[in-house]
Task: structure prediction
Amino acid sequence: MKVSYDSRADAVYITLKGHGIDHTMRLGPDLAIDYGPDGEIHGIDILSAREHLGLHSERPEIILEHIEAIPA
Result:
């Protein structure tokens, strides 16, 4: 999983799988879900991220808890 933040666009993108996007479903003006050809969620796009996620800096801190490494 990869989480990226674009401060100019005020957008967060969460990449769950990196195998390409087949179609996107908009769930509102600021939220979109990207689906891959396998029908699974490949990414989540959040616009107006500062408002929706309570981000307070140009480089917000992201804390991941209870994450176990998956052997390669």
Summary: Residues 55 and 61 are 9 Å apart (CA to CA). The two ends are 14 Å apart (CA to CA). Residues 49-53 form the longest helix (5 residues).
